[in-house]
What we know:
Shape: rod-shaped
Distance between the termini: 149 Å
Bound molecules: 2-acetamido-2-deoxy-beta-D-glucopyranose
CATH architecture of the largest domain: Sandwich
Number of domains: 5
Structural class: mainly beta
Radius of gyration: 66 Å
Number of strands: 43
CATH superfamily of the largest domain: Immunoglobulins
CATH class of the largest domain: Mainly Beta
Amino acid sequence: MSPSGLLRGACRTTLISLLLVCCLLPPGAQGQKFPLRVEPQNPVLPAGGSFLVNCSTDCPNPKLITLETSLPKKPVGNGLGWAAFQLSSVTSDSQVLCSGFCDGFQMTASSDITVYRFPERVELAPLPRWQPVGENLTLRCQVAGGAPRTNLTVVLLRGEEELSRQPAVGEPAEATVTVLAGRDDHLANFSCRTELDLRSRGLGLFQNSSAPRQLRTFALPVTPPHLVVPRLLEVGTTWSVNCTLDRLFPASEAQVQLALGNQMLNPAVESHGDTITATATVTASAEQEGAREIVCNLTLGSDSREARENLTIYSFWGPILNLSESSASEGTEVTVTCAAGARVQVTLEGVPAAAPGQPAQLQLITTERDDRRNFSCNATLEVDREILHRNRSVQLRVLYGPKIDQAKCPQRLTWKDRTTNVLRCQAQGNPDPELHCFQEGSWNEVPVGIPFTVMLNYSGTYSCRAVSSRGTYTVTVVMNVQGRNAHAVTIVMVVLVTLGLVTTTAALVYVFGLQKRSDIYQVNQGSTWLPLTSRKPEEAVGEGPS
Ligand SMILES: *[C@@H]1O[C@H](CO)[C@@H](O)[C@H](O)[C@H]1NC(C)=O
Ligand SMILES: *[C@@H]1O[C@H](CO)[C@@H](O)[C@H](O)[C@H]1NC(C)=O
Ligand SMILES: *[C@@H]1O[C@H](CO)[C@@H](O)[C@H](O)[C@H]1NC(C)=O
Ligand SMILES: *[C@@H]1O[C@H](CO)[C@@H](O)[C@H](O)[C@H]1NC(C)=O
Ligand SMILES: *[C@@H]1O[C@H](CO)[C@@H](O)[C@H](O)[C@H]1NC(C)=O
Ligand SMILES: *[C@@H]1O[C@H](CO)[C@@H](O)[C@H](O)[C@H]1NC(C)=O
Ligand SMILES: *[C@@H]1O[C@H](CO)[C@@H](O)[C@H](O)[C@H]1NC(C)=O
Ligand SMILES: *[C@@H]1O[C@H](CO)[C@@H](O)[C@H](O)[C@H]1NC(C)=O
Ligand SMILES: *[C@@H]1O[C@H](CO)[C@@H](O)[C@H](O)[C@H]1NC(C)=O
Ligand SMILES: *[C@@H]1O[C@H](CO)[C@@H](O)[C@H](O)[C@H]1NC(C)=O
Ligand SMILES: *[C@@H]1O[C@H](CO)[C@@H](O)[C@H](O)[C@H]1NC(C)=O
Ligand SMILES: *[C@@H]1O[C@H](CO)[C@@H](O)[C@H](O)[C@H]1NC(C)=O
């Protein structure tokens, strides 16, 4: 048998004896004349305590004053009309009964003992680690022990705000309340408190509180994050990958993982208001070539959202366009090669290579017309149904010359004295030749290609030389400068005019003489004078070579 069982047994015997006493007493007993008092009356005591009970009466000759109780008792004194007992180990509510006799009549009186005790345990059940905003949260508070239960209340609190107040019922007592979690509840502290109100019994209001529990709420929309990635990414290039999501709460607590294939990226995460943005830079490596998946996994609270995008990592090497000689002498063979990476189709000067990945080649014997000729190579690569183009061009230099184009350099020139003329001669070649024309004998130089005034002494044979590091090319030009003889012309004119005048005069004299004799005369109006014309010097006339 447990000690409480023993106690209950003791209680039962006390009750039986009380009933017996009551039944044995005749109704309206004379003992009532001198009532028996029990002190204290209906006390409220802390559990486990001890206290003194005094049974007293005003009866002049009382007898056998005793105390009936299931509690351990010890007489502590008595006197005329009283007896006091010390009761100890008061653990539960009980009743004590004083009895005695007065003039042969039995007297009785009782007192109810109420035990109070604080709860042993007040505990708020653990909260979810993360509570979604907009969902109901049930707070549960458990209270073990605590008496008297009729005066024990459980209060559920958010911070200092009372959410619910309910009596403690059951053992352990459980109080619950359901609240709709909101953003305001993020980081709020929830707790529960018991109140043992014994103020009506002359004692205080005793409170016991649970440890607070902090709630974290979150809001994560059902939509997946927005992931911006290029569809194609070339090996060696760097791109930024963005993953964003809106309407998050609290955005600063969100965590973002970005992975390319099985490589974790290291995104920089920023939150502004309700929006989170994770940006990572990706440098595609050769090992990752092929179809890859990029995953953005956003975790907030107890939930996560993810977005996936496919991208293709490719390498596009080339085209590399090579000349066997970038500067070749005229007449030599030059090979043009265009090569590119595997799977790349190259087309050199419009002629495609045999197969993708193969180089394209072309050979030529250089002529001067090939100097500065551009060769272009076009490379195409198909990646994920998209065709990428790339081209290169290279310029060939052909070393030739020096030479003088005879068509552009007249070899016979006839010019008038003191006129302005241009010696039009051109030299070709790579490297560019220098062209100079010198008069044979005097070695006087005449300018080439720029206007100059010719003199009579310019007449002669000229040697025009084009000179480059590759040699010399000479063309002979004969220049004939004619004098004007202006004085002689004037004399001839004067003689001719005088001659004309003399002839006319003679003729008139003769005609008048005849007319006087025949009375008929006629004047011939037809002019016989010679016109005097000044002729401009003729332009130099170039004589073309044969
Ligand atoms: C018990 O009560 C009587 C009468 O009121 C009093 O005289 C006596 O001193 C009390 N005894 C104790 C121990 O308080
Ligand atoms: C939350 O609980 C209340 C009743 O306590 C109910 O009316 C409401 O529909 C619940 N809300 C949600 C989102 O479950
Ligand atoms: C305490 O309990 C008693 C007895 O049940 C009752 O009469 C009293 O009103 C209660 N007081 C409070 C504050 O609940
Ligand atoms: C909740 O409690 C923690 C620590 O006990 C405290 O730092 C925090 O400020 C409290 N929160 C609120 C909203 O009072
Ligand atoms: C309950 O509160 C009382 C005072 O109100 C205190 O003496 C007691 O130690 C508390 N109990 C616990 C378990 O904290
Ligand atoms: C990614 O975000 C950064 C900063 O917000 C922005 O500068 C960049 O243009 C974005 N890139 C793409 C591909 O959207
Ligand atoms: C996203 O990340 C979280 C935390 O790292 C993980 O628990 C979850 O399984 C991930 N989700 C997916 C689909 O990979
Ligand atoms: C990515 O590729 C896989 C298989 O190649 C395909 O099943 C999936 O739908 C693609 N995802 C997207 C977002 O295009
Ligand atoms: C092009 O020339 C470079 C050096 O001049 C050489 O390393 C390379 O192999 C050549 N490429 C081809 C395709 O001929
Ligand atoms: C060759 O290309 C260069 C620039 O790459 C250009 O300046 C030049 O005119 C081109 N030559 C010819 C003959 O097209
Ligand atoms: C390169 O070739 C493709 C097709 O082979 C053609 O569409 C494109 O115009 C070419 N580009 C050049 C610059 O020749
Ligand atoms: C080569 O490609 C560039 C752009 O990719 C283009 O601007 C250029 O015109 C192309 N050159 C030739 C010769 O097609």
